[in-house]
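Throughout our pipeline, every protein is held as a single compact record rather than as scattered files. Such a record has a labelled line for the sequence and another for the backbone structure tokens. The remainder of this section carries one protein's record, kept here as part of the documentation:
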Amino acid sequence: MKRSLLSCCLLALALLTAHPAPAADMANTLVYAGENEDTINPVLSPHQELPTIIFSGLMKFDAKGLPVPDLAKSVDYDPKTLTYTFHLRDGVKWHDGAPFSARDVVYTYTALTSDKTLTSTITSNYQDISRISAPDEHTVVIRLARVNAAMLDNFCMGILPAHLYEGHDINTVPANHAPVGTGRFKFVSWDTAGGMIVLERNTDYYGKVPSIERIVYKTVAVESTKALMLRSGEADLAWLNAKYARTFRGKDGFTTVDFTTADLRTVAMDFHTPFWQRNKDSIAVLNYAVDKQAIVDGVLAGQGFPAFSPIQTSPLGGNPAADVYPYDLKKFAAEMERLGWKKGPDGIYARNGERFSFTIQVRDYEEERVDIINVLSRQFKKAGVEMNIALVTRFDWKAGYNGYLAGFAAEFDPDGVFKSFVPGASDNNMAYSSPKVDKLLREKEGIFLWCLEGLHRLIGNNYQFSISGKARENMETVKRSSNNVIEFLQSEGYIRFRADSEASSKAIYEAYTRWCDDNAQKPMSANRVSSELAQNERLYNVEATNNVHVGGKRVRGFMGIEVVNPPPY
């Protein structure tokens, strides 16, 4: 079951700075055209621009994107007990003058792992924590229930002040609108009517004190407004999409900074909706109807490249140049026919009396996303699919829309998208589910521990390779599990076991190769597939025969099995 149609990955965003003559009262002040904000809390905030400079975490990311100690001056890890021990900095104070201590860390991570009322999208990042304790006010011990290689990344999240949050609902506590942190900048005021948040530098910061004295953060959603603010001198700095950034390039008084990101745009399908529950088999093929490069060139002015995965820019994300779903309308038409869709008189595909028509919601103020969805809608219509567009101010998950145009990134570790792709996870708002992915995630701990055990044995054996009895047993297990034919025979949508049916070996193998293609599996030989089925005749109630009727001929095959939507001969 596929999650979504991946449209484009923005790799070059533009940061614009203006250079107007400063007013006397604005000297050494940065005016930033930011995003709309409802709350400033690292546990709750969808935007992290303000939380990352107001709050500090146990760890922080360095210039290479690697986690290094921050509020912790050092950290120890015991691989045998899966335990992190953080040694906290001395003398750190909250912005209100209260001392920072282990109590604050314990409160924050206890809330993330135990508070069932917490409306946060990141709680799944911390589900492997089994115990949190503080032997003293400068030491925190966090034990995991299982291996989690991304945990140090997750410890970069900002710590909350226990003295302001304990005894309150973390979702509605007043401190969410008057935040107190330990970071480089202190909160001063929030003018919600005027759309302005004011910060000042923290002169008691434990690290390097910023040279900028004050930040005025303008809460702006519309990118055209941000561009106007830059032109008029009302803002010094803003993110702009490619369309607006292009209008500033080469102009006196402005500096354009382009940089690489992992930002992704994708149509995320909502599997809560009946349409996709009925037609989930037809999502992946939509990729063949999308000319992603045309979107990159036309909407993004070449500032990006076609996407096939939310982690393709990560070193662990595979080949970034892979063309998993090329633009191919002939392939799309063939796949639609295989899936049982036929074009109606209006040019739109239909199946079982239902037109291939769905509705995607897009926030109306995100101009670039609106442009992307409009291009996608035209491309789909050309291919025979109707995608309606609902422009909304806020996403409405209860309105029955069939999905939304999403944007997110796995900036550092690929585990950053874990919370979006696992059933029941805290940010899986589209009810995505893939039994194959879930199986791999369940097995990852065993694979890691197996590798770790082998490394210890190698070191203990003076770096001489040997194969233990357990290793031989594991090798046999891996060899058996590499046989994906059994998994194919147990899948749905390709074959059915029915006593009154028959299928040729050729048709069964073609169904198997389709399954391999859909599930990114390497197909085995046709003889191997037939042999595996013959060896399991009793299990599946089938019978090998040379008497299957195909096109007036008798060929080899099996009684008791039917191929779903077999290709024409």
